[in-house]
Amino acid sequence: MKKINISDLLLFVIITELAGALSSLLSGGNFAGYYDTLIKPPLAPPGWLFPVVWALLYATMGFSAYLINRSDSIAKRSALILYFIQLAVNVLWSPVFFGLRSFGGAVAVIMVLAVLVAAMIAVFGRTDRCAALLNIPYLVWVIFAAYLTIGTAVLNA
Fold first, then answer.
1. What's this model's pTM, rounded to 2 decimal places?
2. Rounded to whole angstroms, how far apart are CA atoms 63 and 35?
3. Which structural domain, as residue segments, surrounds residue 28?
4. Chain segment 44-61, per-residue pLDDT in tens
């Protein structure tokens, strides 16, 4: 078993957390104010829960990417490319939903993200099973976010 390289681990977690911060910055803020004005579908959580869940998911995602990075697998490079592609798409959702207030655009982004996360988990699974499993909560949350996005789009059309 390889020894954990703390600086590499922190680098992956910080990069991933910064992606979330960038998404927030590009959205223009005032999430709570806008979220409160929307008609939301059943099971919609309170607004304060989203940043808490995302912070935890970003940390887990960063850890999983670190596990892939330290792997000796020949699939490591393609797995990390897919990781950063899905992370870039992840960054787009908040600016589209909150910044542009485009429900249709947000639905498109979240659907693409769900497919990319599922593909990432599959590729990660061929490289490091633990890294793949760590992303299952992320996929579940993205699917739930897709439900919320679609529901919000329909209810606020």
1. 0.94
2. 30
3. 6-155
4. 999 999 999 999 999 999
